[in-house]
Design brief:
Radius of gyration: 29 Å
Number of domains: 1
Helix content: 10-25%
Shape: elongated
Strand content: 25-35%
Distance between the termini: 83 Å
Mean pLDDT: 86
Number of helices: 3
Number of strands: 7
Order of helices and strands: EEHEEEEEHH
Strand order of the largest sheet: 2-3-4-5-6
Largest sheet: 5 strands, mixed
Length: about 180
Amino acid sequence: MAESQLESEFSRTIRVERIGREEIERRIEAKPDERAALAERLGLASLDLLQADLRLKRLSRGRIAVEGRFEAKLTQLCVVSLEPVAAQIEGEFAVEFVEAGPGPETEAVVAIDSVDPPEPIEDGLIDLGEAVVQQLAERIDLYPRAPGADLTWQDEKPAISEPKRPFAALSALQKGKKG
């Protein structure tokens, strides 16, 4: 199944025909069941808030600009102690979408130092919710730590033992023959 056919947990689509040269604004917020599904998808203990204020505008050559700001409140588990770690993430972003033109598909050439390539517009729709989720996923701390959690590795101290004597067994045998 292609990724585009998967159902998003937080889908807020808009038809591209509704987007003109005049900027339009949208405010989206995830519902509790959507946040629970997103928390599972993103590996979070909980996602308590996810909302975004977005601005959309049509650009030249079939491109759509989406700019916005999102806010999320979430809880992760500490990678050391497994204690809950609360976090608040806010961010601004800009994403560009492009309508696919008629004709055969072509490969996009992306330079390493360029900005992100435009996202494709599929079936005349832009999923604003999924765009926000992708921005959130990029900013989640991969290794959250609770205050005071320490992961300093210490090797066990080896037990003090007698020095190894390679010929001790032979010496014991010889003593047995003599005695």
